[in-house]
Specification:
Blueprint (H helix, E strand, L loop, with lengths): L4 H9 L50 H4 L6 E2 L3 E7 L6 E6 L10 H19 L4 E7 L10 E7 L10 H7 L5 H19 L2 E2 L7 E2 L5
Parallel strand pairs: 2-7
Antiparallel strand pairs: 1-2, 1-6, 2-3, 3-5, 4-5
Amino acid sequence: MALTPDEFYQHALAATDSERRLPLSRMTGWEISPFVQDGLRVTPLRPPVVPEPPRHGEDPAECGICGDRDKGVWFNERWRLDRISGVGLPLIVMLYPRDHYDLADLPDEMAAELGLLSTRIVRHVQAVPHVARAHMYRFGDGAAHLHLWFFARPEGQAQLFGSWLPVWDDLLPEYPADLADADAALVADALVASSGGSRTPTAAYGTEAEPAR
């Protein structure tokens, strides 16, 4: 059985200093880290909050993602894909079920579709010129409505490898929107060809998103 919230907190607290700060993680020493270790400090460890605060859209009637169910670059009857605007990477797209589901709530048929769609989206993003890799993330602490991120890592940028990529995205200057729109259209067209559905017939896409969580 997992530790209780208080037990977990006490376990972690035993590794902190007098200010309740944990030591820097091994990740901060990796060559792909965007931060220099000298002067970098960990935020003081805060005690648990139980019960946890509700996520955005716990009530489907108040879910903003549900309100955007007809917005995106690609659709079929159950899913939609949209480009996330205001980002630093060449392309970030997000896949949502059009109806209100979290990952654990998906019917088996949609869960099977999710696996196939995710594979094809990664394949199509990686086919965009000058994109080396597509990273896929699911977090789920910010919004109750399922949302999967697909981050395009630019070709040749070895410093942007791996798990620090979302942090680098937050640090980089905003990528030109017209180029991202064109690449989103390439991905949407490829998804229509591989999976059916339809593409939005417009040159301007983009949904602003909160930090990945």
